[in-house]
Amino acid sequence: MTYSVQGALGDIPALAEAFGLRVSLGIWLGPDLASNEAEIARAIRIANESPSVVRVIVGNEALFRREVTAEQLIAYLDRVRAAVKVPVTTAEQWHVYREHPELAQHVDLIAAHVLPYWEATPVADAVDFVLERARELKAAFPRKPLLLAEVGWPSNGRMRGSAEATPADQAIYLRRLTNALNGEGYSYFVIEAFDQPWKVSAEGSVGAYWGVYNADRKAKFNFTG
Questions:
Q1: Which of 43, 106, 119, 208 could form a disulfide with 77 if both were Cys (CB 3.0 to 4.6 A apart)?
Q2: Would you state the torsion angle of the CA atoms of residues 38, 23, 154, 171, taken in this order, to the nearest 10 degrees?
Q3: Residue 69 near residue 96, CB atoms below 8 Å
Q4: 101 and 128: one domain?
Q5: Which helix (H) or strand (E) element contains residue 151?
Q6: Closest Cα partner for 43 from 71, 18, 76, 92?
Q7: Which domain of life is it from (predicted)?
């Protein structure tokens, strides 16, 4: 899954195609309308040219950040759906879909972020938290496929309520969660592959440590064993 098509990010589908990988192509939306238009135009072209693109995600938590209105987002979704042949959705925190059920009429699938760390949920309860939110979304939108577009846990950073960001809790949580989601047949993306130190400026110290690999590309833990 990508988050934008600007710069080198727009080259990812071509690179993925060379390795037989599939791409959920992200369009970054924000308050700059001209930038939104540029993202949409390039994403439509890439989606129609690259067979590696299997879906397009129009916006990442843009409603949650209040950088677009629901009406603007729906208009963007409708435009992209009319212009590409693959499924189209928008990625939002799980509760945003509950607060804006009208979105379901303008997407081909529900793409929801469920991140219990940010909701101060202790790791012992975190897997159940995700499963409960997933079941709620399936019940609310029974005719739409569900993609848990971000699930994950940080390995370092500040404590948030009862949620601790430690290597042990990250390993415990992701092992348990992936087993549970696989067992119930859910589709999901783990956030994220690699630690990204630059995210400290946007998310605080914890933002740099969501990867299952560290910044030196070393695995933090084994998913099995």
A1: 106
A2: 180
A3: no
A4: no
A5: strand 146-151
A6: 76
A7: Bacteria
Same domain, 138 and 78: no
Dihedral sign, CA of 97, 138, 184, 88? negative
One DSSP character per residue, 11-59 reads GHHHHHHHTT--EEEEE---S-HHHHHHHHHHHHHHHHH-TTEEEEEEE
User: Does residue 142 sit in the same domain as residue 192?
Assistant: yes
Q: d(Cα 75, Cα 19) in Å, to the nearest integer?
A: 34
**How many C-beta neighbours within 10 Å does residue 51 have?**
11
Beta-carbon-side half-sphere exposure of residue 42 (alpha carbons within 13 Å):
21
| Model pLDDT for residues 107-139, shown as the tens digit of each residue | 999 999 999 999 999 999 999 999 999 999 999
Tell me: do 8 and 107 sit in the same domain.
yes
Measure the CA–CA gap between 53 and 46, rounded to whole angstroms.
8
81 in the same domain as 170: no
Which amino acid, one-letter code, is at 92? E
| Dihedral angle of Cα 217, 39, 61, 57, to the nearest 10 degrees | -80
Shared domain check, 221 and 146: yes
> How confident is the model over 169-205, as pLDDT tens digits?
999 999 999 999 999 999 999 999 999 999 999 899 9
State which residues form the domain around 154.
Answer: 114-225
